[in-house]
Amino acid sequence: MKIYLNKREIEKYLNTKEENILIDNILNEYLTNFSPFVDEKELLNNFKGNYYSYFLDKLEIDSSDHDFYNLSKKYSLDKFVLLDENTYLSNEYYKDIKLNKNSFKEGDLSLNINAFNSYECFLYKDIDIIKNNHFREINNIGYFNKPFKYIELVKNDEVWMSITPHEIETMKSDIKKVNGNVLVLGLGLGYFPFMISLKKDIYYIDVVELSKGVISLFKNHLFNQFLEKEKINIINNDALEYLKNNDLNKYDYIYVDLYHTSLDALPLYLQILNILNIKKYNLNKVLFWIEESILAYIRRILLSLIEETINNVDPKIYLKAKTLDDKLINYLYFTLKEKTISNKEELDDLLKNENLKRLILDFRY
């Protein structure tokens, strides 16, 4: 890659990438170690309900730290959102799908009723990307002021899927987009198939799920409550094998929900895009759950390559790879070897979602 853009301008992108990572780490620490254990009386009495002040106190961050204050403003950390539970309780899945006891177990899987505690914070939407601010990543943090129950699917103490505000918000736009015949990769609790089955312009839905245990739990305790279950066909198969070995042209859309986070999504995302590109399937009709977060992670990898380029790193490092991240950065190095970036507009264009996807279509993992 040949970069002729002013180094100071490039450093704004690199500094923003580092700030994105820093904020992620800070939020992960709070959400993991403090948020589930909020002292409601302390929050309301000692901090007058000011969640940001409570957040700083628990992380032992000096509230007079001017640098952190400025960083908080950039990332809207001072805007914890009090959510309206009725927004989610009025959701069709919440209204129609019930468990008649708190837990059902089959092997290492369980179907449970869990709850957010009062004032427990969580990510309630996918990240927002501020493209005109060097691709700053804004997390959306919310909470309820009373306990909020939800259904979850758990395997060996790891949550595989839960019908929380995050699930509802991150699938909302894709539910609106799809029509016709839809292939869904990943069953979970069946939220996406349930919601799209209610649409008059949806005719049939094939759901591919590898785990027989997940299918069994779903059919025994949830599926009989689906209003339009005759539209839904569940296929016990490996999603990648199904994509490789079946005619996909009968589907108007493909929806992918096979992962838990943007990090474990990366290998599947890369493989599925490659398979569908080879099969000439219309990639505009392929929707990935939390794709904004997945592409943000790929953008960070590309920015790392740009940083190495302006620092004149020895190209020999791109001949060896131990991890998936290494393989991807090596691939991007050779793919972009003759690419020229002369101004900010060209760099912004390279980092846009649609161009990131185009870059990785031929990557084989």
Q: What count of helical segments does DSSP give? A: 15
Poorly predicted runs: none
If strands are numbered along the chain, what order do they take across the biggest sheet? 13-12-11-14-15
What share of residues is helical? 40-55%
Describe what you observe in this structure.
With 365 residues, this protein is α/β, with parallel strands linked by helices. It has 15 helices and 16 strands. It has helices at residues 7-33, 40-46, 51-58, 66-75, 85-89, 92-96, 165-177, 191-197, 212-221, 239-245, 262-278, 291-310, 324-335, 344-351, 353-360; strands at residues 2-3, 81-82, 103-106, 109-116, 122-123, 128-130, 136-138, 141-143, 148-155, 158-162, 180-185, 202-209, 232-236, 253-256, 286-288, 340-341. The strands form 5 sheets. It has a 5-stranded parallel sheet with strand order 13-12-11-14-15. Helix 11 (262-278) crosses helix 12 (291-310). The longest helix is centred in the first third of the chain and has 27 residues, at 7-33. The protein is globular. The model has no long low-confidence stretch (mean pLDDT 95).
Task: Describe this structure in a few short sentences.
The chain has 15 helices and 16 strands. It has 365 residues and is α/β, with parallel strands linked by helices. A hairpin with a 5-residue loop joins strand 6 (128-130) and strand 7.
Short key terms for the protein model shown above:
alpha/beta; globular; 5-stranded parallel beta sheet; 15 helices; 4-stranded antiparallel beta sheet; 365 residues
